[in-house]
């Protein structure tokens, strides 16, 4: 029986997949950053907004570089074990790359980096799934006159 021409999936997007070449560019740029910068850090984040990261990147542009991407690609660029690491001891950073995390390369000393990250705390509106930071009570009139409390 011939195949039906009606049930074929049609891709509507014009985007092309990021292939091996794109991953190799990321690996090479992270390895170049290892040579250019004196310090490397792994940072993690929750509900990060792109605009806030852009502001931090712009503030630290002359002395630092951020990398966000696939954790496995970043792990490969650092080296997953002592045998395939790029610099001595750098494979230990790869173990911390999981979840929402990224790499931060800088020429600034540790104390300055800690001060900048503590100083750069931004408050923003909550998103779906966020936990409330304050308790509040809603009172409404109902036939049984009960109060509801939310945490």
TrEMBL record:
Q: Which GO terms describe its biological process?
A: nuclear-transcribed mRNA catabolic process; ribosomal large subunit assembly; rRNA processing
Q: Which is one Gene Ontology cellular component term of this protein?
A: nucleolus
Q: Which keywords, in A-to-Z order, does the entry hold?
A: Cytoplasm, Nucleus, Ribonucleoprotein, Ribosomal protein, Ribosome biogenesis
Q: Which GO terms describe its molecular function?
A: RNA binding
Write down the InterPro entries for this protein, in alphabetical order.
Mrt4, Ribosomal_uL10, Ribosomal_uL10-like_sf, Ribosome_Assembly_uL10
Q: Which Pfam families match?
A: Ribosomal_L10 (PF00466)
Q: Which Gene3D superfamilies match?
A: 3.30.70.1730
**Primary site of residence:** cytoplasm
Intracellular or extracellular location(s) = Cytoplasm; Nucleus, Nucleolus
Which N-terminal stretch is annotated as signal sequence? none
Role played: Component of the ribosome assembly machinery. Nuclear paralog of the ribosomal protein P0, it binds pre-60S subunits at an early stage of assembly in the nucleolus, and is replaced by P0 in cytoplasmic pre-60S subunits and mature 80S ribosomes.
Q: Which family does it belong to?
A: Belongs to the universal ribosomal protein uL10 family.
Subunit structure, interactors included: Associates with the pre-60S ribosomal particle.
Please identify the protein, giving its name as recorded. Ribosome assembly factor mrt4
Taxonomic path? Eukaryota, Viridiplantae, Streptophyta, Embryophyta, Tracheophyta
